[in-house]
Amino acid sequence: MGVCAEAKTAEKGWALNQISKLSGAHSVLMTAHALRVESISNHYIVVARAPSWQMVIYNPSSKVSFRTSVDKFRGRLAMGSSLLNGNFLEDLPLSNRSKTIEPFLSVKSEHYSVLYKHQSRPRRSLSESPFALSTHDVVGANYWVWAESDAPLIVRSILQKIYKVPIIDRIPLRLILVDSEKHASIELDTKKIQARMIDDSVFAVPSGLRPVGSEEEVLNDADRKFRVNRMIQNFDDWRDVMDREGK
Fold it and tell me: Model confidence over 111-156: pLDDT tens digits?
């Protein structure tokens, strides 16, 4: 597969390794003028560049791509995320929160901590789907974001949509929820933050990609089809077991 010709210049930027409970492991490269997010778990790459910041989402295995704007980008790039009933984590209320400034790896972070009163506790819920997350009330949340990142707001928005975390004008670093059963859940964590020079060529989009009509289609490669089919078979097997026990 060929690559579109780009001027080979390097710019100061950052490399991050992040893990989302919902969407898996990601390698992030960003500068003031470009963003590249590679999903290790779901086999897609997102590229967006100034000045238009049009997003290109492509699958290097199946050689398909989808183009969209940041406003229209839904972040449905993890298996099961399209079945979420609403945007639970994005809408997590963080009003009346306390904030402290803390070191986080090699950078400075803002740490937001909030406890929810019983009558106003958010509840994680899903539509009638087998992708069951915890349905207990959330009693507390701790959210770390990058305090002094110079990344454009549009880059922060893309990352928040991919990870489905609360919307704050900062790069998300870590989100921990505590439910009413006292279970802590790490929804997002950052394992590495490194300042480095990034060659402009890493943001180039390969040529020869076949366009598709949605984000979800980018992920529909042979591996995804195998995993979905196996999951459906497992559900069918469990249904058979339950049917037999009910007789």
Answer: 998 887 665 566 655 443 444 444 457 788 899 999 988 889 999 9
Digit-coded pLDDT (tens) for 177-225: 888 778 888 999 999 999 999 999 999 999 999 999 998 888 876 555 5
Domain holding 145, by residue range, is 10-238
Provide the CATH number for the domain around residue 234: 2.50.20
Q: Give this prediction's pTM.
A: 0.78
DSSP reduced 3-state for 59? strand
| 191 in any annotated domain | yes
Domain count, the chain: 1
In DSSP notation, 141-171 reads EEEEEESS----HHHHHHHHHHHT----SSE
**Position 244 in a domain:** no
Q: Is residue 247 part of a domain?
A: no
Q: Where are the beta strands (DSSP E) in 45-97?
A: 45-49, 55-59, 64-68
Q: Quick check: is 245 in a domain?
A: no
